[in-house]
Each structure stands twice: as structure tokens, then as C-alpha cells.
Please model this.
Amino acid sequence: MKKFFWLSTLNESHCTFFEVLNEAGNKNVFLKIDVEGSEYRFLSDILNNEDRVTGMVIELHDCDIHLNEIQEFIRKCGLSLVHINANNYAPIRLDDNLPLVLELTFSKHAELSNSCTLPHKLDIPNNKNSPEYELLISDNI
Model:
């Protein structure tokens, strides 16, 4: 039965982060997290279990109101942030050009580079009818 990742609820079609990890057993796991704004509910659970995670792609919503939380997560995460993509379905905040939905990719094993152009040539726009957002990344997070 397909389950939706959520909080512990009475609904049998929902499961928690810990249930997902327990089902994976002692294996290293790769997480793909797209839970439409609920990702902030379990960022600390990810950090507390990152020794079991080899990689992760996480979509972060409402980046403008969660920016400090996102920065803190990146700082504390033992995985390397290897890619950032701005979801072009969501708007960009006018005063500072902050994308309101970001997709971050982390890896335990990737080699890092100091140079990159975003979007990457392998990126595909979320909205194929709109151009990709170009990102300028600063290392002062």
C-alpha cells in the first residue's frame, strides 16, 4: 500500500519519518522529499538520523518566511549541499530576488567544486512554459 509521509495520524495511509527509516532497516537511504510545506516539521529528525542518509533532494516551500531555518539546516547538515534549483512555478521575491521554492540536493559522497552556473545544463524547468531562474550563489550562509 502506498503511504504518504506525514505526522503520526489515525489515517492508515500516512506514515512518519521514523517509520520510513525503520522500513529501510540499517541500509543507507536516499531521501526525495516533496511534502508541500510540511518539510519543516521534520528537518531536525533528518539531522538526528543523517548517519543513515547517503543523499537527499528536498523541496523547500515559503523560503522567505523559513530562510533562517533553511540556513540553519544547511549549516548543521553533515551532508554536502551539491546543487540548488529554483522551482520556476513559484515566484521570486522582488526586493531581494529570493526564490520562494527551492530544491536542494545533498550528498555524502559527492566531490565539491567552487565553480558552477545555475541552472546547470542538466536542469529541466519545473514549468516548461517558463524560463529557468538563474541563481547567484554566495558562500556567506
Remarks:
- The longest strand covers residues 53-60.
